[in-house]
Structure formats: structure tokens, C-alpha cells
Specification:
2 copies of one chain form a homodimer. Chain A is α/β, with parallel strands linked by helices and 508 residues long. The first copy, chain A, is 42% helix and 10% strand. Chains A, B: GO terms for molecular function: dipeptidyl-peptidase activity; serine-type exopeptidase activity.
């Protein structure tokens, strides 16, 4: 069963909370609840990209109760801080992980351990199924799913409220700590299952894919291979020119229709012009069916930008949201107003009674671990629109350094990740160092600009398709997969199977 | 000029402070002051080995004032905690480093940067000269020396007293933080010298050698090669059986003389027997010329054990302290008492007016960053003597977990280093992962048991000599070097030169 897209439903459900006073916080919690698939359910805010507000999710094959019972939820007493020895650092918290040992053949056969890395969302049943998990019976593998600290139930300080209370408590949320968490749990599991000599393969998508590749590089003695799907590990300020993300979004729309691209590109000035009129915001609110009256035309612009970005990022079969939008924009009779066309595009893909264009409040951003991560490590430079894209000149990033400082009181450390994991030269470095990493990308995904798109060495390889979108290749093989997608998935499985064969040849 | 050993002088100078009330603290400070050579000046307490109390140093070629002025002392504003984002972690401290750019040919030629990693001692002029620094003129290299956090002048919290005040302040002293310090400073220097494409080679001895090899593994994008001299990276509890260190000390003595070995082995019971008599301690104090009256016979045993261990670790030409001890023990007429022989051995190598056998106080241990490191990360299991060694059955380790808990109030995390850097399987892992590391060892050095003694791959290689001792190969080439030593040094330089050639072939 192929997971069809529910691109509209999240916005629909968020819309239904519109009358509630704490609408944004609730929306955000709802998005978290819905974010259950293998890959990102919402656009990560890396580099200031939108997130959360227009979160989306995929429909998963439902697991039967008898299948679900094979997945055991467990908790590991995780060390709060792995890298310093202040007395507070010894504090532990319960980190959630899930194990399925139904197919596990014990350590004798050196059966593999497949570790699915959960990114910035709750670990739920929706994560259980993916193309790697699907080969567990064939390889008698142990399936492991590890939740990320500060997400879901894996909360230091006992509760969400305490964990997110302030920068002192949030401070232990960092990529290095998250990687060390994985190292500790996997080491513990290998011992616990007498599986010290069993091959471990880690995998994940988007941010979790970045974690997978970095884990292989930093802990090669723990994971013998990593698959990073749609992982923009090169997407930092010193590596890619800014605005590359929006360049790809623009390309996707332009490929769908040059007219559509032009309509969007020209709409921003019209919106700004109307918005500056005394009754302009009232007019725009009505025109775009906003759930509440617009306070600024920027809020409308942000909503439209985010919707277009998300459509491109998840531009996947069978719906192809970019085409849906452009078909609606182009499909109106000649002479139709630009804004009428734009609204038709939005309405075609989201199809809601009204549209929530209210920005997230500071109160809700302050309680968001992903905002914390964006503000400390992942921000890089913010995308600035240029003439080469269809986005407005005064495009507003998801969050700014000033806003971060005001939310959390700490500055970002934008260069640390490049120092820690490598910047411009990392591809050249990896030619001679490291092995067994798959970087897979779909080139319609705007994040592919930060991805590794060419083979680096015999065993650090790039798999890509021009038609693919964000993390699409992680879903179970389906008879409905287009050929190019089925082929990408099979290539990935073939390489992983090759690692296991090589491992067995050497170690057993 | 070959640096001859001054094995006796440290003890002599420490002895001269005997009348001072704060003798131990002062001794310790003195040892720190004397610890200026390339390699360890005192036995590191890894795995509970002795340290500090019987510290020793090498005689260095004095540098002329005109040479010294080429070495510029600088300070980097280092981040207190690289791995978490609590507001306190953003605090900086001044980390000392030294640069010699006299030979540096700028970045055009891709001249190399040689980074000497300073271990658990003050960075001083004594560190400036070594076989890698010696080839700087030939390769137009930039010479860099980086002091370790919490040692020398590189003190967080503004002073030694504050840095060492308690576990909260000491807590930021960890290996991961020290490696990240190196990453930051080297990245800064590459940028500052427009040397982003210049090859960086890191090197160091003993603990600093461990740091060098780990740095290459964790930060391959920053250092393209590492030389780890006498670095016991395999010397952790899950890898080597305990007591291996003392097995090598025993072998060294046994090779010098079977009689000497037997005399030492049988002396412990005699010491214990005499010590248990009412006037026994007075007798032993006189017999062994202790500076103050022995409180327990264990203190004498510890002093003897440490002296034998250090003699083996630094059993180097031209003095060969193990031979010095055994020649004195064996050289007395037949029928001479065992303890008279033992004292003659000690006196022959140390030659002091009196011997300081008083154990370090808790107050002095609490102010020692190396004790902190031993108590948190580096302790592993403590050596326990067995019948295969010449050491007493009830051999006392340098420090115990209980003592650590009482000193600092925190438990050790003995498994973290194995999780972080690899345990039993690291050699097999490195066959397929990583490149460009030299592990050099002298097999008379008891720490060689924890060293990498066989080639792992084409470019992760082991260089060893049966006659060498701890870090001996780091000193400048000298016409007085025995052939085996000169050959070991030349092999190491040849490999480093090969890395640079390969780098230039690929990058320029």
C-alpha cells in the first residue's frame, strides 16, 4: 500500500482549532502528534526554513494489533551531558526507544541491527514501517527505533514544561549530545543482545539523515554503515550560497509552468500595494479566506511562501502538489486577476474552509525544541531572496538571530557545526577517509542543494532521481511506485545488503 | 645534542623542600614547572599509575634568545563548553598557544602546519624542539603548540584556584572538550593564515599522543595526519587484561637480571614483616633514608614500586635506569641482606640525601587536574598485581574510585571513552575506516601494552623498537642516538613526509 499524501489534512485539522484562544500552541502540539512518519512530517527550519505551521503527514499502512505487539517500547537511562563532568551532568533522563526482535536470530549468525534514527518529532507507530524495516525478516534483523532527546517522551527534567523552561534547561539539546545518546543506547543494546559482533546500520531522513551520516563518521566502531535520506549536510553558510533552497523551489514551479511562475513572482508587489491601502488588509483577508483578519500583508506573504516551499519539498506522486497549484493558477480564464489565481492555487492544494495565516507567537516558539536547535546550531545564514527566485525580495526567514536572542537570551554558534563535521572540503576529505555511507536525494526537494549528489568514493555514494522529493525513498516498496522511485529504493537496499555481506566475510 | 636523563634531579629538588610545611603542594608545583619536554615529564596516572610524586624531566637543548624570539606566545578565547548551549557554556577563557612562523611560506605553496599537542603539563620552551619541529625549515612549515585546557596558563574561571575549586568548575575538563579546543584553534589559525588548504599534521606523546590519534579520527577534515608516540589507546578495561603494565616492568627487570628480579620480588614480604614489628617502621625509615619517619610500610612499598615503574617506563640510553638499579642490587657481596640491596638500587638511580615517601595529601590531589582526569575518564580498572609480576600482592593503585568519590564527589564514567573512541574492535574497524596515523612505541615502555603495535592498514601504521622507552622517539635526531633509535625516528619522518607529498599531489 502506497502512502498517499495528506497534504491538506493537517492544515484542515489545524484550521479546526481556529476558534480556540491558544490556537497556535495547540496547532503546534497537534502537528507534533501528526508527525509520525519515517521522514520529516514538517519542513525542518534548517537555514530558516518554515516549519510546523503548515506541517503535513503521510498516510501509513495501519499496523494490526498483532503486528504492533512485536514492537516493544523501552526506556534508557540516558546521561544528561556526555561531554562534561559537572555533577549536574550525571543526571539521567528516560530516553524512549522501540525494539522489534521478532525476526532477530541472536548473535550467532551475526544478524544485523537496523537502527532507525528519529529526528525532531515523537517516536510513534508511524515510524515502524520503512524499506529497511521491511527486509528485517529476510536478514533476521533486530529493529531499533530511537527517539531524539527533548522530543516526544524523551524529556530531561521530567516534563516538557521543565525541559523547555529556559536556556539553562534547553542547553543540553545539541547534535553532539544526540549522537552520543545513540552511541550509548546502541552500545548497551549490542551488549544486552550479546551482539557485539553484529553489524549495525543506522538510517534516517532529513535532519535524522544528517545524524545518521555524522554518526557513521564519528562512531565508525558502533555503526558499520549509514543511510542518509535527503540529508542536507552541506547546507551551511560556508558551503552553499544562500537562497539555494528557494532557487530549487522556483525551478520546480517553473518546470511545472512558466506562466504559473510568472504569476507567483508578480503577485508579491500586488499584495504589498493592496496591503498598504487603508482597507487593503480587509480585502486581502477576504480574498484569501484567512481564518482571522490579517494584521500585515507580510503574514499573507509568509503563508504563501511556506505553502509553495512545502509543495516543492514534498512534490511527490500521486498528487504532485506543485502541479496541483500551477494547474489551478493557470486554469482560470484569460484576464483573471493575479490574486484570484494565486488563491485558486492555494485552495486547490489545501482546500480548507479558511486559512490560518497568524504567525507563531513567541510563547509558542519558546516552547519548541526545533526553534532552539535552529537558534543555536542549525540556523546558518537565512535565505535571502534574489531575482533568480519567484519569492518576494523582502522574504522573511522563519526566525532571525535577533529573535533567537530575544527568545532564549543566547547567541547562535553558526560555525561550530562546520568545525565539528566539516565544511567546504568535506567531500574531498571523505575520498580518503570513511566508508559505507549512502546519501540519497530527490532533486525536486529544495534541500537537495545541501545534499551530497555525487559519489565520493566506492563506498560513500550518492543516489538521486530528478523526480524525487524529500525523503520519498524511505517508504516501503509499493506496486504503485513509479519506476524511477522503485529503482532508487532497490539501489539503496542493494548497497545495504552489500555492506552486510562484506561485514560477514570479514568478521565471521 | 642528545637530551640525557635527569632522572635523579627531580627527586633531588623535591627533597630540598622537605622541611617546608606545604612540601607536597610545592613539590607538585615544582614538578609542573619542570615538566617541559615534548613527551611526558612524569608518569601519567592512566589506569592508576603513579604520577607527579617522582616526576622526572629531560635535559633540553637550550634555545638561544634569538631563536626563542621566533616563538610567539598567543591566547585564543576558547569556548568553555563546546557541546551544550547553556548560557554558562558560552563563557570563554584564554587558551595559550605558541606559533613559530619563521619558516612559514604562506598558503600559496600549501606549506604544512605542524601542531604539537601539549598534554597534561604547562606549555613552555622545553616543548619547542622535537623531530617534527626540526623539519620545519625544509618544509617551510608553520609550527604551532597548543596548551591543554586546565593546565599551565589555560585556566577557565581566571585562576588555578577557581578552575580547580570543585567538581562544578573542574567539570569542563574532559577529553572531548580538549579535542574540540584543538579543532577550534586550528580552524581559526588556518583561516587567519589563509591556510585553509594547507595540510595539518598533529602529533604528541603519551596522553597527548592519544589526543593526536583521536583528533585525526574525529576531525579528519582538520588534520590530515597524526603521529601518536607511546599512546596507550587500547589500555582500557575492556581491552587489555589488568596488570599488563606491571608485567612489562617485570619483564624489563627480568631481562636486566634474574637475580635482581628475585630480590625485588622477595623484598615485599620482608618489608611487611619488619613493618609489623613495634620498631620496624623506625628501622625501615633509617634503612631507606626516608626524609621523614614512615607512617606505614605501605608508603615505603609505594615509593619503591613507583621508582621501579618509572625506571622501566623511561629505561632509555644513555643511563638505562633499570640496569643502574639492578647492577647496584646485584653488585653487593654474596650474603648481603635483601633490603640493603634494594636500597642500593634506589640510591644508585636517585642518589638523594633522603627519600620522600610521604603520600600526596587529599588537599594536593584535589588541586591536580590529572587526578581529576584519572577520576572521571582515564581510570579504567586499577592494576592488581599477580604472581606473574615482581610487585607486591597488595599493590596499591595511585588512586581508587572510592578516593575519587571522596575527593570530588562524583563517580567515574569508565565506559565512556570506549563508547566514544572504540574498544576491543577498534583495530578491525580502522582497517576499513580512517587513514594517516602513526602509532610509535618502545617495547620497554610499560605503556606499550596499550599501544597499537601492528600495522592496521597501509596508512595506519605501527612503528616500534624492542629497546625503546616512553616517547623517546620524539626528541631531535642526535649523533648519539643508537642505530635502532635513529632508524625509528627516520621511519616516522619518512611517513609524515609521504603524507605531505600525497596531499600536495591531490590538493594542489
Amino acid at each position: 500500500m502506497y502512502p498517499s499524501f495528506r497534504y491538506r489534512e493537517t492544515q484542515k485539522e489545524m484550521g479546526s482549532f481556529n476558534g480556540v484562544s491558544s490556537v497556535l500552541l495547540l496547532s503546534w502540539l497537534l502537528v507534533l502528534l501528526l508527525c509520525t512518519e519515517e521522514c520529516l512530517s514538517r519542513i525542518p527550519s534548517l537555514l530558516g526554513r518554515p516549519r510546523g505551521r503548515y506541517g503535513r503527514t503521510h498516510r501509513h499502512p495501519s499496523l494490526s494489533p498483532s503486528t504492533l505487539k512485536d514492537f516493544q517500547t523501552l526506556y534508557y537511562d540516558q546521561t544528561l551531558d556526555h561531554f562534561n563532568y559537572r555533577p549536574e551532568s550525571y543526571t539521567t533522563f528516560r530516553q524512549k526507544y522501540v525494539v522489534n526482535s521478532k525476526y532477530w536470530n541472536g548473535s550467532n549468525n551475526s544478524s544485523p541491527i537496523f537502527v532507525y534514527i528519529v529526528g525532531e518529532w515523537d517516536l510513534t507507530e508511524g515510524d515502524y514501517t520503512n524499506i529497511v524495516a521491511d527486509i528485517a525478516p529476510q536478514y533476521q534483523a533486530l529493529l531499533v527505533y530511537i527517539e531524539h532527546r527533548y522530543y516526544g517522551e524523551s524529556l530531561p527534567f521530567g516534563s516538557r514544561k521543565e525541559a523547555y523552561r529556559n536556556a539553562s534547561n534547553f542547553g543540553y539539546l545539541s547534535i553532539d549530545q544526540a549522537l552520543a545518546d545513540l552511541a550509548e543506547i546502541i552500545t548497551y543494546l549490542r551488549k544486552n543482545y550479546s551482539a557485539e559482533h553484529c553489524p549495525v546500520i543506522v538510517y534516517g531522513g532529513s535532519y535524522a539523515g544528517m545524524l545518521a551520516s555524522w554518526f557513521r563518521l564519528k562512531y565508525p566502531h558502533i555503526a558499520m554503515g549509514a543511510w542518509a535520506s535527503s540529508a542536507p549536510i552541506l547546507d551551511f553558510s560556508d558551503i552553499n550560497p544562500r537562497d539555494e533552497y528557494n532557487t530549487i523551489v522556483t525551478k520546480d514551479f517553473r518546470e511545472a509552468s512558466e506562466d504559473c511562475y510568472n504569476t507567483i513572482k508578480e503577485s508579491w508587489a500586488i499584495i504589498d500595494k493592496i496591503g498598504s491601502h487603508p482597507k487593503g488588509l480587509k480585502y486581502l483577508s477576504k480574498k484569501f479566506k484567512t481564518c482571522s483578519r490579517l494584521n500585515t500583508s507580510e503574514d499573507l506573504r509568509d503563508f504563501l511562501c511556506y505553502t509553495f516551499e512545502e509543495a516543492a519539498q514534498y512534490d511527490a506522486p500521486p498528487d504532485y502538489p506543485v502541479n496541483t497549484i500551477c494547474n489551478a493558477i493557470d486554469g482560470l480564464p484569460p484576464g483573471t486577476e493575479f490574486l484570484t489565481r494565486i488563491f485558486a492555487g492555494i485552495n486547490a492544494t489545501l482546500s480548507l474552509g479558511c486559512y490560518n495565516t497568524t504567525p507563531e507567537t513567541d510563547a509558542s516558539l519558546k516552547m519548541d525544541p526545533w526553534t532552539w536547535q535552529a537558534c543555536t546550531e542549525l540556523m546558518g545564514s537565512n535565505g535571502q531572496s534574489t531575482n533568480v527566485t519567484m519569492f518576494p525580495q523582502n522574504y522573511r526567514p522563519y526566525i532571525s538571530a535577533d529573535q533567537c536572542m530575544s527568545l532564549f537570551g543566547i547567541p547562535e554558534r553558526p560555525h561550530w557545526l562546520v568545525t565539528e563535521f566539516g565544511g567546504q572540503d568535506i567531500k574531498l576529505i571523505l575520498k580518503r577517509f570513511g566508508s559505507n555511507i549512502i546519501f540519497s536525494n530527490g532533486l525536486r526537494d529544495p534541500y537537495s542543494v545541501g545534499g551530497v549528489l555525487e559519489d565520493i568514493s566506492d563506498s560513500i555514494v550518492a543516489i538521486k532521481t530528478t523526480q524525487g522529493s524529500h525523503c520519498l525513498d524511505m517508504y516501503s516498496l509499493s506496486p504503485n511506485d513509479p519506476d524511477w522511485l522503485a529503482s532508487q529504493k532497490k539501489k539503496i537496499l542493494h548497497i545495504i545488503e552489500g555492506w552486510m555481506k562484506e561485514y560477514h566475510a570479514v568478521w565471521t
